[in-house]
Amino acid sequence: MEHHGISVEEFLAHEHTEGLWCWVLKDVRKLPEPVPCRGAQGLWEWSEPMVTED
């Protein structure tokens, strides 16, 4: 866990932690606008809109 920038103690202290698992994300980018989605648990499909360079 430490090589991903979070200590085991910090991870276990989180109120929503149930066991040792998490998503490790790479190349995370901030979207220019929020993506509307229905509030629900689980995974969902999202099609990235075409982005044009300004």
UniProtKB/TrEMBL annotation:
InterPro entries: PUA-like_sf (IPR015947). This is Uncharacterized protein. It comes from viral metagenome.
